[in-house]
Write a structure and sequence with these properties.
The structure holds two protein chains of two kinds. In chain A, helix 4 packs parallel to helix 7, helix 4 packs parallel to helix 12 (248-274) and helix 10 runs parallel beside helix 11. Chain A has twelve helices and no strands. Chain A starts with 11 loop residues before the first helix and ends in a 6-residue tail after the last helix. By secondary structure, chain A is an all-alpha fold. By secondary structure, chain B is mainly alpha-helical. Chain B has helices spanning 25-54, 62-67, 73-82, 89-101, 115-150, 155-169, 172-186, 202-228, 231-238, 243-281, 286-295, 299-327, and strands at residues 5-11, 14-20. Chain B has a two-stranded antiparallel sheet with strand order 1-2. The longest helix of chain B has 39 residues, at 243-281. Chain B starts with a strand and ends in a 7-residue tail after the last helix. Classes of the chains: A mainly alpha, B mainly alpha. The interface between A and B is large, with 48 and 50 residues.
């Protein structure tokens, strides 16, 4: 396996306790998402109107929602939405960002100038405002959430790739590859990208945290996953309506979101230290 | 050096001539400010274009979506005329930009009132909430960050940095309801929602400011750590100054320079965070207005809210950049 440039010590992450905790949380999340049908104690869609809003019980450890559905099962199934949206948005954004960032950084000139102006425009929309606006006009659905988050999501990756390429493109090994007649795509794919992986890995980890939080925010506002799909954000939205009579409906989905995001932030912090990426 | 002199600066591939009486650090600052102002134009143009296109991204007929498919044909035609949807796209765009420049954002579909009037009525409440959240964040982050830096790796440092990560990871749409349960429902200290005086702003400000406090305390700590290892701090210690004086007078002053930038940038980011906080606490601000407009498919109002929040964000970033160049004279035009 190729060694990633900048790694101080492969066992360092395991010495970093918080990063290990983060890795454990993410492992649990992925395990829950993959094996949800086997882990969930009951069908997340099965209604029991007599049990509506019931608090924790032996049969339903995290209580039931307004339609009597098991909260624990819905939270376990909800992890699928978070993992799916997180991977989809980060994956697509990473691909687009790497492509555009490479193009701008390697070629420079008007392509770079155009790219910088597009980035300026997209960064002029604070936080998830553009995502809210886009899902509002495109219609509430998970696919539109993914699309809306990708519209701004690629910018961070593109800026990193562009910045890194600008710093390495005049190095001797790149000049040597160029002198040997290597074409730009080959130089970027085989010589530049492997050397700028560290900051991308760190950004991807923090990106997952941000996307999961953004998806939950959009679902909370009613713009993401639609009922009866169990998503943590939409569960919280339902829960807030019964805050006074059934606080468990709000508490547990929120904890699930927080622990998941915390896990990615722990891991991101640990990776940043381990891969020796400059803190910006 | 006095008298009229000329300096040329290369900004964005254009050459500008600046006339000034004195050419010291102000040369660079002036050029920096001009560069930032020039960069503002494509950004504002891009924001306007994207906001204009929003209504055209609606799948199918926007009028059907706004009024419902069963609406009367006459009503649909009236709305189509009001929104000028039958005009060519270029003409619609020019009319939109012209309207925005004149402060005319169109009329709300539901209240029939001018969008700008509705927005400006709600805007002060959002600013009030954002400022309160920022004050709350500074009150928490400054002492925490400073203490963490001067007692690096202590129990307090580790705990506060853990809580900082927790704060960053905590969704405000969860923190808000949790605070409501504890402090409004159980203890009855604060009202559950609305804007009914000073005490009603406390919970929304904590909800909105917690993430910011977490980011800032990490930033203050990092910045202080960098400063207290500098030689002039060692010199101050060697001179026998008290630790309090060294930290507050010598270290903090320099450590706060990068923090101010983050405060400025995050102030803009708080505006978007306010959308969710206002929705939770029924705070009568522009964020809640935006969500209400989305729910009622009042797209001219959605456009107006998005545009105003974005332009505010851009202007706050601009002011931060310019202020930063004044605060830190090391900033030079690159």
């Amino acid at each position: 396996m190729k060694r990633i440039q900048g790694v101080k010590d492969s066992s360092e992450m395991f010495r970093n306790k918080l990063a290990t905790v983060g890795l454990f949380i993410i492992g649990t999340l992925i395990f829950a998402a993959v094996f949800a049908p086997y882990l969930a104690p009951s069908n997340p869609f099965e209604q029991s109107l007599r049990g509506g809003l019931n608090p924790s019980s032996q049969e339903h450890p995290l209580g039931q929602d307004k339609l009597g559905r098991d909260n624990l099962s819905r939270i376990i199934y909800g992890s699928r939405i978070s993992v799916f949206v997180g991977l989809a948005v980060v994956g697509i954004s990473l691909l687009i960002g790497t492509f555009i960032g490479s193009l701008a950084g390697y070629n420079g000139g008007w392509i770079d100038e155009l790219f910088m102006r597009i980035v300026d425009i997209l960064l002029a929309f604070p936080g998830i405002l553009l995502a809210i606006a886009l899902t509002a006009v495109l219609g509430p659905s998970l696919n539109n959430v993914i699309l809306a988050l990708c519209v701004t999501g690629w910018v961070g990756y593109a800026r990193i790739v562009r910045g890194q390429i600008l710093t390495v493109k005049e190095r001797e090994y790149i000049v040597a590859a160029r002198a040997l007649g290597a074409k730009p795509p080959r130089i970027i794919m085989h010589h530049i990208l492997p050397n700028i992986l560290s900051p991308l890995i760190v950004e991807t980890t923090f990106g997952m945290a941000a996307v999961i939080l953004a998806e939950a925010s959009l679902s909370f506002l009613g713009l993401g996953a639609q009922p009866p799909t169990p998503s943590w954000g939409s569960m919280l939205n339902e829960g807030v309506q019964f805050l006074l009579v059934a606080p468990h409906m709000t508490t547990f989905p929120g904890l699930a979101i927080m622990i998941t995001v915390l896990g990615f932030n722990f891991l991101g912090d640990g990776l940043r230290d381990m891969l020796d990426v400059r803190k910006d | 050096m006095c008298g009229w002199t000329t300096r040329r600066f290369r900004i964005l591939d254009f050459r500008f001539t600046i006339y000034d009486l004195r050419f010291t650090i102000h040369d660079f600052m002036m050029a920096f400010i001009i560069k930032r102002l020039i960069l503002l134009f494509p950004v504002v143009f891009g924001v306007l274009t994207l906001v204009f296109l929003l209504i055209h991204l609606i799948p199918g007929d926007p009028v059907d979506l706004m009024l419902g498919e069963n609406a009367q044909i006459a009503d649909k035609e009236t709305l189509r005329k009001q929104l000028r949807l039958d005009d060519p796209l270029g003409k619609q765009y020019l009319l939109f930009v012209g309207g925005v420049i004149r402060g005319n954002f169109g009329n709300s579909l539901h209240s029939r009132k001018p969008v700008i009037e509705l927005i400006l009525k709600r805007y002060p409440a959002t600013i009030k909430l954002t400022v309160a959240a920022m004050i709350m964040a500074l009150l928490i982050s400054l002492p925490t960050g400073i203490y963490s830096a001067i007692r690096q790796y202590s129990f307090m440092d580790n705990s506060s940095m853990f809580f900082a990560l927790l704060g960053v990871s905590m969704p405000n749409f969860w923190l808000g309801p949790m605070l409501m349960i504890v402090f409004s429902v159980n203890m009855g200290w604060f009202p559950i929602s609305g804007d009914e005086g000073l005490h009603s702003i406390v919970l929304p400000a904590i909800t909105l400011g917690t993430g910011m406090a977490a980011i800032l305390s990490r930033m203050v700590r990092a910045s202080m750590l960098e400063v207290i290892s500098q030689e002039y701090i060692v010199t101050a210690r060697a001179k026998g100054l008290s630790e309090v004086k060294i930290i507050l007078k010598h270290a903090l002053k320099n450590a706060l320079v990068p923090v101010i930038t983050i405060v400025g940038l995050q102030f803009g980011a708080l505006l978007s965070g306010a959308i969710i906080t206002e929705t939770i606490f029924s705070w009568p601000g522009i964020g809640r207005l935006l969500i209400q407009a989305i729910n009622t498919r009042d797209y001219p109002l959605v456009q107006g809210c998005v545009l105003l929040i974005s332009i505010s964000y851009v202007l706050i970033n601009l002011i931060t950049d310019i202020a930063y160049s004044y605060i830190d004279p090391r900033i030079k035009l690159k």
